[in-house]
Structure formats: C-alpha cells, structure tokens
Amino acid sequence: MRACVTWTEIVGGRGERRSIFVLVSSMSAGGRSVRLGPRIVRILRGGGWEVAVRLTTPGDDPALIAAHVSPGTVVAALGGDGYLSAVARGCHESGARFAPMPGGRGNDLCRALGIGTDPLARARNLARLGMVPARRAGGDIVGSIGPGALDARVRPLDGMWVRSREGLRLALGIVSIGLDARANILANESSLTSGPLAYGYGAFAALASHEPTGVSATVDGRERNMSGWIASVSNSGRFGGGITLVDSSDMSDGILEVCHVGPLPLSRALVVLASIVAGRAKAHPAIDIESAKAVSFTAPEGVVAMADGDRIASVPFTVDVAPGVVSVLV
Predict the structure, then answer these.
(1) Strand partners of residue 144
(2) What distance in Å separates the CA atoms of residue 218 and residue 126, rounded to the nearest whole number?
(3) What is the pTM of this model?
(4) What is the DSSP secondary-structure string of 66-128?
(5) Is the peptide bond preceding residue 316 cis, with omega within 30 degrees of 0?
(6) Once rounded to an integer, what is the mean pLDDT over residues 192-202?
(7) Considering Cα of 107, then 112, then 114, then 115, what sign does the dihedral take?
(8) Less crowded by CB within 10 Å, the N or C end of the chain?
(9) Are the C-beta atoms of 62 and 68 separated by less than 8 Å?
(10) Stretch (H or E) spanning 35
(11) C-beta of residue 277 within 8 angstroms of C-beta of residue 200
(12) Calpha distance 158→225 (Å, rounded)
C-alpha cells in the first residue's frame, strides 16, 4: 500500500509536488484579491504546486489561521499590507514560510522586498518552484530548478512588535502617529483605487486639518521631544504606495529608524511633504533620521497610530525591533 504523503505528492517522472496554502483577502483594494485569486491559483497549479486556498472574510483572523499550519509550510498571502502583516504574524507563531503577494492598493511590503506590484507576475515567479525535481538513477536532477531553489529564496525578515492596551501586533513597514498617519486615514476613506494617488490626496488633505502636536517619546531609553509634523518608526522605509520615507531602512539588519519632522510653519511643512511624496525625503534638512531598537510613545494619550495601512495602536504604545521574526519567500 502506498504510504500517505502529507505535504508532497510524487508525480510520475517529474518529481515531487510542493504544497502551498494561499490566504486571500476578501476586503483588500475593493475586492481586487478576490478577482485575481482564481487566476493566481491556476498559475501556481500549472507550475506543479498542490494548492489549498482559503478566502478570508472580515470575521476571520488571518494571523490565527496561519498560526495553525505545520512548520515549514509555504503560506502565501494575497492582500494589502495590513493583511500581509497579519499573516506574517501567524507564520511567526507556526514556523511557516511566508510568501507575500501584492493584492492591495499600496503594496509597500512587496515593493520593499523587490517582489513588485503585479500579483500575476509574482504567481508566475513562484510557480517555477512548484516541483522538487526527480533524480535519475545516476543522481542527476531532471529539470533546471534544483531541489534547493526554494530554500535559496527564503530569508529572515525583520519586523516591529507594537505593544499597547489594545494588544500585541506585528508591523512590517512604518509605524506613524503624525501627519503621515492622518494622511493614511484619509487615503483609506477615499474612493481612489491607486495607492500613490490615494496617499497623495490624503497627505495634502491632511495638511488642511492637521495641527502639529506635542509628542513625547523614549528612544532606546533616552527621552525625546518628537513634537511637530511627523513622528514615525521605520522598518521597511516604504509607505503610501511606493513613497520612500527612509531609504536607509534595511529589513534584515535588526535596526529601526526613527523619522521626525519638528514644528514648522505650514508653508515649510508643505515643501517637506512635497519632497516626501516626490521621493526626495533624504535630501531635505528638516527630516531627522536616527537608528533605534526600541521606541515608546507616551503622549498625547489616545492619538491613533497607523502601520501597514491600518490602525495598529493608540498612545501610549511601544515599538520594539523583531529581528528575523519570520522566514519570507521572495
């Protein structure tokens, strides 16, 4: 009797069929992931993957779902940045391999990882890893993709643990409480489907209503006054659908970057914001960047923090670097 194979299936002469569990968000980008899901599954199956699919609804917890798979399982997530971070949290808990796929408006994680913003291209790229090639009697591998090809594309990915009265969350991009957080909220409320357009609208709309506030923080144990327009903690350096806020951010160095723009007249703040949206943040002298491993925000109490496109906490909260928190398949 043929032995039961849990995660791979022998396919006559070709090798072993790898398995992938695909989580699809029903909410991201107005249902974009749902519309693309069937095509992505066909592409993956065409490459040899044994595909299991779960369409998640607002009542589901993608982190909890990913936390209950077997260690080493490849878990793909098709959705926006907040959805991807939730699945990454679950993969951290289970020891699964996290395969992000761009399915939102901004897709900043996939941009930062070099995956790009085309979910079908990402699926075709992953499809090439679907088979573990068979070996001939002499030990030669049948096919051009060796059995270690998947392992070679897995690497540790840093994140940020965000602790507040609302619980513990994992963020992968940028945590913000200033003007950029307000811009994110307004972008989410807009009907624009393009991430960069939505954020650009949100950023300049936020200027009309945002007042620089007094922000108290502790950076690696040192008290800091982070009052002004922007107070953010960066892991990926990307936000807003491709805007680079901190180009020195590295998602594998175990270090975070604190970005601060202090009190400025509105006219100067507008210039700073324009430089950020245009991708020239590095060159502006009003933008202060410093490295850190732990940041605590203590005031003003109740101010909402955003990360990966979603609300993640409210002041007071802490942000700690999470080195190699999940294994990511790029």
Answers:
(1) none
(2) 42
(3) 0.89
(4) HHTSPTT-EEEEEE-HHHHHHHHHHHHHHTPEEEEEE-SSS-HHHHHTT--S-HHHHHHHHHT
(5) yes
(6) 76
(7) negative
(8) N
(9) no
(10) helix 32-46
(11) yes
(12) 27
